[in-house]
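Handout, section 4.2: multi-component inputs.
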Amino acid sequence: MKAIEVKNLIVEFDVTDAEGIVKSKRKILDGINLTVDEGEFVCVLGRNGSGKSTFAKCLNALLLPSSGDVHVYGINTKDEDRVIDIRQKVGMTFQNPDNQIVASIVEEDVAFGLENIGVKTSDLRVRIDDAMKSIGIYDLKDNMVSKLSGGQKQKVSIAGILAMKPKIIVLDEPTSMIDKAGRIDLLNTVKRLNEEEKITIILISHYVEEMSYADRVVLLDNGKITLDDTPKNTLLRKDELNEAGIDMPYISGLATELKARGKNLKGNEETVFELCQYLK
Amino acid sequence: MPIFEVKNIYFRYDKYDKNEIYTLKDVSFNVEKNDFIALIGKSGSGKSTLINHLNGLKKADKGDILYNGKSIYAEDFDLTGLRFKCGIVFQYPEYQLFSETVIEDVEFGALKKGLSKKEAYEKAFEILKYLKIDNLKDEIPFNLSGGEKRKVAFAGVFAMEPDIFIFDEPDAGLDSVSKRHFYEMLKDLNKNHDKTIICITHNLDDVIEYANKVIVLNDGKIERIGSPFSVLSDKELLKKCNLIAPYSIDIYRHLHEKGIEIDTSRLKYKDILDELDKVLL
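Output:
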């Protein structure tokens, strides 16, 4: 079943001068075509300014196409009457969790979205508890959000989304404020939601390492999709990654260069063990 | 004489809290001229709070900070002068952008230093080019992507031409190529232009690559100060501070276990590449 279908998506912004007069147009997305099936885990990679966040905002009708169409479970995001349906299907977390945390206590923040759509108090309790447990922040439920670390805040915002039971979760650079241990932990949690609860995941990232959690990698550059492949294969396409402003991950980068020097390696090794398995 | 001598500082946010929970506890370290210091520690360990002390944005409750031997808390100390010498790029660059165009934002610091409008414009343009964002000069800063905003914020600090650059997680939100370019530029400033760098980061691979000294903060206390290798190869320390070793150390350790020794002062990416070239089939 198709969860997301994007056809010839173009998004342009007006470039204005200080007086607000439109000088020109800046094409952020330039003819995107992409179909994502239900249950897929897609990593959208791209350098700064490649259009990743703009693309994410098109998926839940925060932004509408300048031309082309975005369908979510068959609903066109341009259909104004169904915006609420779309937003219930597509949950989204932003780059900086501070931008979307509204309450002062963890569980209140997680409950916020549900309260707004009028869920009964008894159901509310169950759904927010489930959401917090599933993301592993149940112990923190009575804490002040302001006292949490960046990674914990990210989890709170994801729990808030999860409580809404979306079919699709879009994560816009969820780990940019988190240390490596927190990053691995968060991505493992997301992976588990994908595998166990069959939630379709769109992970927006510029950390190439993060693509190994996904089933599929889509590379965005200059508003266009320039690569659409599995993570393992993507690691073998170094030139295309570099062309799009993406460096290889540390280990795979070594593997690629060593392979070029004639070593017995495939070039897409991802662990120290794989890299060092053939010692002299 | 060190540029900064931080002496036993304590700081707490809530001055009225009876429990006296300190965010910084008895923190002491020196910053020498031409240091490239990586300040590491998990989220919430007090890193950002600490660097805000260095140019007097936060005032320690106890302890002292000497800048070129003079207490920054002395009544006759020129704090404004220090802030021109010691530029900070904050964690959220959107907090420090305020002008209507990118170039105006970057000019601001140069104008404040007393340059003419024309000189400031040229300086700002030169910096935008150095950072490879001169194409954005007429854009409205608030319309830029997260990573682009970050680069504009760097440019603003560059325009002040400080001696000491302090960065709070400069790599968050930058793509890998921009990040590498940025760190190479810091290395250039540090090696060829005598600038002192203090950098908060979560990316320990970059610490190995660029820093000469590592300070580990844990729960508001200094846990360790040392060379990148001595700090990042200490398993117990990393575990205690919830940090994960960089790949270069993993490779070093893997080879060490197989009986292959590599020079611990040569663990940069290129060194590792050459070492592996020697030992792999």
